Amino acid sequence: MLLIIINLKKLGTEITNLGRNKLVNKRKMKLMST
User: Fold this and answer.
1) HSE on the CB side for 28, CA within 13 Å?
2) What is the reported pTM?
3) How far apart are CA 11 and CA 4, in angstroms?
4) Alpha carbon 25 to its chain's center
């Protein structure tokens, strides 16, 4: 059970990191376009 919870936490952090990267990329694109 503990291993499953740890894996879920790792997945969650990876997904949030991906989301942050996408937001950062969008901001970079906006800065480049202006």
Assistant:
1) 6
2) 0.58
3) 10
4) 11
